[in-house]
Design goal:
single chain, alpha/beta, Arc Repressor Mutant, subunit A, Rossmann fold, 2 domains, five-stranded parallel β-sheet, 12 helices
């Protein structure tokens, strides 16, 4: 991993809010966010230049120029590593990394967290699930499975007008399940914040560095750092979804609903020729 990225990730949980905003921008748009001026970096992060400068000082560099030099060096090293990787990847190493990340993810979702999340999924008037360009696949999977266990489960997708129509139906007592990982989705954030303003609660599934939505979450479910592989494996997000579904099913007596669903499914099958 790039040394600057590793250092930013290591100190991120201990940063003040303003410094965390700068670190999040650097991580989300690395290395490009670091290659402009200090003022541009601060403006993009929505903080003052002294705040951005304090983060650089925390990283131990001799001014912003020294920080940029370290970023350029790391980017050059990463480029060489990519060239090496393009010549051949050991699938055993990749499999071990994926297995480790999955084990850490499952361990991170301890009983109290699952109990809290399942309680929110059971008790909500309606459940709305959404995600970003990739994580929406996990949200869609949650909706498909949860909809068999309880009524009023909706998948939020589509354009702004379509999402506005969904938001029109969100009310107090509802639960929004948002999957939000780096790079964090502005569309997901906009819907979730608007839903919370209408009285809904938020179950946020995010990464170790935590989505900007974390402060709005009623239940916060962060995946561990080990889950953040170079391609952000969807495997971990689906595994978390499976854990949530199993915990929720344990709280519901859905046998009659599932039997009726099976009967209705059979009744809608075309007759055999």
């Amino acid at each position: 991993m790039d040394p600057v990225v590793a250092q930013l990730e290591e100190i991120y949980p201990r940063l003040a809010p303003g410094e965390r905003a700068v670190a999040r921008l650097l991580l989300d748009d690395y290395p490009f966010a670091a290659l402009g001026s200090l003022r541009t970096l601060a403006e993009r992060a929505g903080v003052s230049p002294p705040t951005a400068s304090r983060l650089v000082d925390r990283l131990g560099h001799e001014g912003f120029a020294g920080f940029q030099a370290a970023v350029r060096t790391g980017a050059q090293e990463r480029s060489r590593l990519r060239e090496f990787a393009a010549q051949g990847l050991d699938p055993r190493g990749a499999a071990a990394e994926l297995h480790h990340g999955l084990s850490e993810t499952i361990a991170a979702f301890h009983a109290p967290l699952l109990e809290s999340a399942a309680g929110a999924l059971v008790g909500a008037r309606a459940v709305w699930a959404l995600g970003g360009p990739l994580s929406e696949l996990a949200a869609d999977y949650l909706v498909r499975q949860l909809g068999a266990l309880r009524p009023a489960v909706r998948f939020v997708t589509g354009s702004g007008p379509e999402r506005a129509r969904s938001l029109l139906e969100v009310a107090s007592g509802d639960l929004v399940v948002a999957y939000d990982f780096r790079r964090y989705s502005a569309q997901t954030a906009a819907f979730a914040r608007a839903a919370v303003a209408r009285g809904a609660r938020l179950l946020l599934i995010t990464d170790a560095w935590r989505s900007p939505l974390a402060d709005h979450a009623h239940v916060l479910a962060p995946l561990p750092r080990a889950a953040a592989g170079p391609i952000a494996p969807l495997t971990h997000e689906i595994a978390v979804t499976e854990l949530l579904l199993v915990a929720t099913a344990a709280k519901l007596n859905a046998t009659e609903r599932l039997d009726e669903l099976d009967e209705l499914t059979r009744s809608l099958q075309p007759p055999a020729e």
